Amino acid sequence: MTKQNDAVFAAVCSVVGADGFSDAVVLNKEQRELVIGMVTDGIMSGNVDFSAEARTKHDTEAKVKTYVGGMVSNHLRKDKRLNGGEKYQAANPGSRAGSSDDMIKNLKLLRSQLADASDIASIDTAIEARLAEIKALTVKAVAIDVSALPEEFRHLVK
Predict the structure, then answer these.
(1) CA-to-CA distance for 104 and 97, rounded, in angstroms?
(2) Into how many domains does the chain fold?
């Protein structure tokens, strides 16, 4: 069974007519549709990895094709074999912070319905405070060997 990233790479190579790339691959609309079609066919035939959970969620060929469209975009951006060997850098790092938190979701929804600048500012303050709480909860505990620290810094260890 072929891994998804290898299936995308093979499909791009087949469509573009090359077996390696020194620059980032840019597909036109027709090439992109061909790549998506090839990978979708591979998933539907069982030749490309697709978890049971994903099969349940994407239970029609149309849903699989939509999934594959996003997957192809991701691989064109992130796969070093396709993006010119560059390490992927998120365009807006942290922009999805707190996106799974119900309080932040609802604060953002409320914010989108407000027009008064002072109300929006207070909502923004509440969102920032909640993000700080979430960040504090996710900080990993670090074991510090106090004896390895210089004497003047030992009092800082909590």
Answers:
(1) 9
(2) 2
